[in-house]
Design brief:
The chain is α+β, with helices and mostly antiparallel strands and 216 residues long. The protein has a single domain (2-166), classed as M1 Pyruvate Kinase, Domain 3. The chain has helices spanning 66-73, 122-127, 132-139, 172-180, 186-193, 200-211; strands at residues 2-8, 12-16, 19-23, 28-30, 34-36, 59-63, 88-91, 103-106, 109-116, 144-150, 152-154, 160-164. The strands form three sheets. An eight-stranded mixed sheet has the order 4-1-7-6-10-9-8-12. A two-stranded antiparallel sheet has the order 2-3.
């Protein structure tokens, strides 16, 4: 497993459906190692901190393997690394096998998996397509958010080393499937509702789902 591309970007202002929107979804590859802090990577900046960024969404990784799917789904659309707003375009990571709470070393920094990405309307802006948010969610190709446990430096080509795997945990793709209703598994819901590294708002969703089940 390794990093194929390190991507950063700052805010820009765009017009969308007659209104002005500030967004940082455009990311581009950079060379050399960059410092990773607890909130982001040097050279990267989130635009709306009410829904983006923060310690539990410090760094976003997207598997390069998904790009073939999107090239087929979006013919004629240019898809350079970073097209989905990811900081790390990776090879070898998978939402299916990576669990919430897993820890990785990348470069000299240490990361913990916290949650999948739930796309907002700005993904539609990036692709000039109002349907892109729905397409992205239904694809199951969410990408992976990390918190930063140890600051350090990361660059393209760095190895991604698994330090700790939560064997009895829930995968990133499980969280997405539980959320959209594709998966109805009470035992998995219970594990998700207590997963220590999963942000509280996610656990609350799953607790409410459990509370709403018919006891009969």
């Amino acid at each position: 497993m390794h990093v194929i591309s390190l991507n950063v970007g700052g805010p820009r202002t765009v017009q969308w459906h007659g209104r002005t929107v500030r967004t940082s979804i455009w990311k581009g590859p950079v060379t050399g190692p960059h410092r990773v802090a607890t909130l982001n990577i040097d050279g990267d900046q989130q635009s709306d901190l009410t829904v983006h960024g923060g310690p539990q969404k410090a760094v976003y990784a997207y598997p390069s393997e998904h790009y073939d799917y999107w090239r087929r789904a979006l013919p004629g659309v240019e898809l350079p690394w970073g097209a989905f707003g990811e900081n790390l375009t990776t090879e070898g990571l998978s939402e299916v096998t990576v669990h919430i709470g897993d820890r990785f070393q990348i470069g000299s920094a240490e990361f913990q998996v916290t949650q999948p990405r739930m796309p907002c309307y700005k993904l539609g802006i990036r692709f000039n397509d109002d349907m892109m948010v729905k397409r992205f969610l239904e694809s199951g190709r969410s990408g992976i958010y990390f918190s930063v446990l140890r600051v350090g430096e990361v660059g393209a080509g760095d190895a991604i080393t698994l330090l700790d795997h939560i064997e009895d945990g829930v995968s990133v793709s499980d969280i997405v499937s539980l959320y959209v209703g594709d998966l109805d598994d009470e035992e998995l819901l219970r594990r998700a509702a207590i997963a220590p590294a999963l942000p509280e708002h996610w656990k609350e969703i799953f607790r409410e789902r459990l509370d709403g089940r018919d006891p009969s």
